[in-house]
Design brief:
- This protein is mostly helical.
- The chain has helices at 2-9, 13-29, 35-47, 53-89, 91-94, 96-109, 111-117, 121-133, 138-170, 175-189, 191-212.
Length: 218
Amino acid sequence: MVDVQHWLSALPPGVLYLIVAGVIGVESMGIPLPGEIVLVSSALLAATGVVEPEWVATAAAAGAIIGDSVGYAVGRRGGRPLLQRLGRRFPKHLGPAQLARAEQSFARHGVWAVFFGRFVALLRILAGPLAGALHVPYRRFLVANAAGGLVWAFGTTYLLFSVGRAAEHWLKDISWAGLALAVLAGLASTWWLRRRARHLESADVADEAAERVPAGDR
């Protein structure tokens, strides 16, 4: 992440905002890219005054919402065969097991999977295409998509920005400690939502296991 932050710091602010929106947007379409790493790195740069936090957050939210919407349209048109092709191209991220788990969670929890999926790497990539392939009504998808994108983008950016500014003020001579605190704060900012998403996924696994047990053995 430090290398990403160093690379981003060499770019003009306008280009950096476009990079943030582009990487997160492409990731949201269904292509595995380090969107969260780019957002965290950019938010830390905002804490040092290199870029403005409101523009970092706006770019991230726009990329998330637009990218998911494009992914939804592609998924609706291509259906499950498209998801399977993506799985063959990116087997470590979107293989059959990952796709089955995401599809089960999505089918069971609907738009809540879209909202919480913004905070989980697998669902962040698959939410848009999967919603389209499952023919979720677009209006419902858009509401959950926009809410999740805004909370994730602005919450992560401003929490990291605030902690980074405090760390810079109080730990001027221990820059590594300030960076560590900022990273920990970024992880804490999404802890509850990730925990909730994992709880939903665990419930899916438990339900699936229960369904496999013969009625006479229950």
